[in-house]
Write a structure and sequence with these properties.
Strand order of the largest sheet: 1-2
Strand content: 5-15%
Radius of gyration: 28 Å
Oligomer: single chain
Structural class: alpha+beta
Largest sheet: 2 strands, antiparallel
Helix content: 25-40%
Shape: elongated
């Protein structure tokens, strides 16, 4: 059985081989002074997940008659959306 090397050798990058920073990259970069963050990076990180909706729906618990629920569920996928549409119609929204 062979032993695994514990020494991980990182490839050396010559400074001359690295791409030059643009003015925009310098402007957006995080700024640290004496190991403390003075200004966070701007526009370089994205937040995970979907974009926020302007009018997000709110989850609620609602008690409906069995016949009402069964009727909407029997109409197939999207039954919750159809209930929302019917409520909006009833309220003239």
């Amino acid at each position: 059985m062979t032993k695994k090397s514990k020494d991980i050798v990182e490839p050396w990058l010559e400074p001359e081989d690295l791409a030059e920073w643009t003015e925009d990259q310098f402007r957006r970069a995080a700024l640290c002074k004496n190991g403390k963050l003075v200004r966070p990076a701007d526009g370089t990180l994205t937040k995970p997940g979907r974009p926020k909706l302007k009018n997000p729906k709110q989850q609620v618990t609602l008690r409906l008659d069995k016949i009402v629920l069964d009727t909407f569920k029997a109409s197939g996928a999207g039954w919750q959306t159809r209930i929302n549409e019917e409520l909006r119609k009833a309220l003239n929204l």
